[in-house]
Amino acid sequence: MSGEALPPATGPKVAGPQTGTQAAGPQVGVDEWVARRAERREYLPSWLGTAQRSVERVGWWPRLGIAAAAGALLPVLGLSGFQLQVGIDSLVFAALAVGLNIVVGSAGMLDLGYVAFFGFGAYGYALLSSAQIGANGIHLPSLVSIPLVMIGAAILGLLVGLPSRRLSGDYLAIVTLFFGEAFVEFTNNVAPTKFGGANGIAALDPIHVGGYQFLSNASYYYLLVVVLVAVMAAMRLLETSRTGRAWRAIRDDQLAAGSMTIPVDRVKLMAFSFGAIVAALVGTVYAAQQISVFPTDFDTPILILIYASLIFGGAGSIAGAVTGGLVVMIIYDGLLRSPSDSGYLFYGLILIALIAKLRPWRRLVLALAALIALGFAVHALAGAISATWVAGAPQSTGLIADALRNWLVLPASSQTPGKVGFVLLICLLIALVQIKGNARIYLLVPTIYLASFVWETVLSANPSITRQLMIGAILIVMMNARPQGLLGARRVEVPT
Amino acid sequence: MGFFFQELVNGLTTGALYALIALGFSMVYGVLKLLNFAHGDLYMVGAYIGFFVIQWFGGASGLHIPVPLLLVIMFVLAAGLVGFLGVAIERFAYRPLRNAPRIAPLITAIGISFFLENAALLLFGAQYRVYNTPDFLSFSSGIRIGSVTIDTVQIMVLAMTVALMVGLRLIINRTMLGRQMRAVASDREAAEMMGINVNFTIAATFFLGSALAGVSGVMAGLLFNQVSNTIGFIAGLKAFTAAVVGGIGSIPGAMLGGLLIGVAESFITGYVSSLYSDLLVFCLLIVVMLVRPTGLLGRPQLRKV
Amino acid sequence: MTAPPVLGLHDLSLSFGGLQALAKLDLEVGDTEIVSLIGPNGAGKSTVFNVITGIYAPGSGDVKFAGKSIAGLQPYVIARRGVARTFQSLRLFANMSVLENVMAATYGATKATPGESILRLPRARREEREVRALAEEVLSFFGQRLAGYRWEQPAYSLSYANRRRLEIARALATQPRLLLLDEPAAGMNPAETHEITELIARLRDEREVAILVIEHDMHVVAGCSNRVVALDHGVKIAEGGFDEVANHPAVIEAYLGRDPEALAEHE
Description:
The complex is a heterotrimer.
Chain A: H1 30-35, H2 37-40, H3 46-57, H4 60-73, H5 81-106, H6 114-128, E1 129-130, E2 138-139, H7 142-161, H8 169-189, H9 192-195, E3 208-209, E4 212-213, H10 217-239, H11 242-252, H12 254-259, H13 264-290, H14 300-313, H15 318-337, H16 342-357, H17 361-385, H18 399-404, H19 415-434, H20 438-459, H21 463-481
Antiparallel strand pairs in A: 1-2, 3-4
Chain B: H1 2-32, H2 39-56, H3 67-94, H4 103-124, E1 129-130, H5 133-136, E2 142-145, E3 148-151, H6 152-174, H7 176-186, H8 188-193, H9 198-224, E4 226-227, H10 231-246, H11 251-272, H12 274-291
Helix pairs in contact in B: 1-6, 1-9, 1-10, 1-11, 2-3, 2-4, 2-9, 2-10, 3-9, 6-7, 6-9, 7-9, 10-11, 10-12, 11-12
Chain C: E1 7-16, E2 19-29, E3 34-38, H1 45-52, E4 60-65, E5 68-69, H2 75-81, E6 83-85, H3 98-104, H4 114-119, H5 122-140, H6 160-172, E7 178-182, H7 190-207, E8 210-214, H8 218-224, E9 227-232, E10 235-240, H9 242-246, H10 249-256, H11 260-266
Parallel strand pairs in C: 3-8, 3-9, 6-7, 7-8
Antiparallel strand pairs in C: 1-2, 1-4, 4-5, 9-10
């Protein structure tokens, strides 16, 4: 509240007379620190943050170019069929997250029916490019069907966004959730001969442009890279334009935005519409790649996956959305398809978290030593009590299995103890969060032991459930620990 | 005509169930202004607890203990355990976010809901668990009026709901705790400055609301027989609809909303088709939200600019 | 043939449930005139602003801007016509930068569609340049306070006084004919208060805009008003020059309580 510093000599010349009284000269430290917006961005901790800062110096468009080139080159380095599929799925979700970012990140509205636009795009393409409708079906050329579907999605987005006129965040969220449910119900139950019902629609035409047909997974991978880059570029251009400013203004203060010439209702509808267009576009490519569509492809778990991607990467940031989509999907898909290898990821993450959080080194070493000692001790004790208590085998194979052999207690019939352990683990984790100080470290050691027990018995044995648990955990943990996500900017919300 | 009244009775019973869930939901919203997405999943946990109590005491057809005792244990255990689960969730997930932007607790709630559903899947498996209520609680005895039957379970549900609602009303309006809850719901900061232990009050509210959800879960198991890990999602949506239609934050409103939804559903299923009952409930919600956003019994909130 | 006043409130009434917020209020603001609106808390001053800017619709009576009725119109329409405001409790776009806050307010004056923005078509590029130039010009009005190096800072990082100035700058970006300032000097120390008083006078003189100011600080009111209007319980109780109104017994009574002798003397 006291006098301001004089601007640095390199600043632009300021026209107009000086106003009022100038207090004493420059304030040491105060304004320069404030002016350095970087500090406010709360970069990722330590060396990650430094890396982030260097990356940002490069400029947005060059970064996009580099990322696009890297993405395009990846298959050239040799990807197995499975890895290619994971890559395709990751690109799909990255693009979906960018679309969702418009509604949630830019305009600040919670659309829990977003997956229905994705489904609309897929089903729209399916109906226009298959034998489903009429005697021989409609087989529109892709350059016609895809834009048509996108226009339809834009209109649908407007319709779904209509409640946003009257409803605030929470209520709007639930109404859009209902809409998403309605879509699944519709495709599941209404006119099965026309819309496929529970069996969906199959035998879709591949995307064809000019004479070229997209048939192989590799070709769809490249197509998706192009789509993702195009979507990112379009959204970036939109973000930095008057529309993007209007969206962010509405997000920050709807009332003030309305008083500053912004037609709030109309602009909100635009957000819904653009989000829908992006989702539908991705939907068409997804449908063509899968060659079929089913109602369950667009149900609530998929919606939550898109949200987890966006929240993890950082809502409000295009780069964040993409990163979140890629990372979350790679783990999600990878977990399912090779459960025994995902042990590396699990233990790796624990180790990294320990190294990052337990300082100084002495503490870390002590904790690890205690952990190892505890394991061997418990194992020996359990083995002495009964042989069946240690007769089981871990889910993980290879290196991990060898390491665990005499360390982890694995009973012969491990499912029930595993489940009990799971519940106990949750309780311990909750307790860990509440406890402070040294007690936390003491509790950490048995918790980690229990965690690996639960992992080897039930979690990696049920990868499809485990990965859903992971998604739920991402949402809970991110909101508590780092609500702006990995690459997002910390937001300030002024209570009104 | 008998059909009409039978449907009405059925509708009122399921409506009472929805009302109970909506009650807990509305209470939590009133105090924290938070739509607890995970509320429906608490109901699901309650239903499972009831199931396991039955198994513990010998299973539906081979009970060691008298049925009334079984019921008491089921309800008390469900209420207590789910109540504490709710308190734990509040403490661990929602409390740190009390001053965060509105979107944060909402997304956390979605995460918790998803986590609970999958945890139940992991622990209990995907197949439906069956209460087999007719084995220990006769469906055929009860009151008969003309061609309309109100069986034992329905009577119990209706009676309990009324009792719980009356009890809740008493707590809110006549006890110190109730007054504190109303104060915190009105203005949290001011309540804190008046010496109210806000953390405890919020925890107590969550306990009560979650306990109600747990109890409704047991009731649902008794009424509908089947329990699985996905029942919470649909129940949560219906609870939300009931709470909003009746007026969120209002207890009689939640009751009214629940009954309306239950009856509407019953009639639509009976006279038209069960396919459309969800759709029409959805439409009812939209209409109410657009025409009277504060609900039938809610009070409009004035906002100072 | 005189032009109609920039702002005309005729017989304006509004009640919230049982509370009569405004009762048959008549008020006029002429071109390039500063009118101060004073009165105790709860007198209805901010309500007047909210009715003028379209946040509330009047219960009865009319609001005329440059002769045309704007009662019941949506806020953004009224803003585009040329009425801009600041808020008693600051309502900036906290997470946007200083420059973006000001540029956001130019939405109504620009026409580029989202499609044009994405493709960076000529109209979009031109409007973007113009908008930026306008924003820079408006910000430069505040001299060193909101100087160039501040433009990329997020609005929440500014000092309180600067945030108040930014809100005025944002309002100016809508190129208004009528500016409504709601307690612009609230929470400011004497030096800043003096600055803001001069600023308001400069706004009238250099940017030729009519200003309606709600203020409690009488230094500001005395320092820049052409006319003062006093409200209490939604009713106008005095109007005129500062000295006239400040010494009016009804005004003194509204603020401080009744002094029967003085009242009898005046009558």
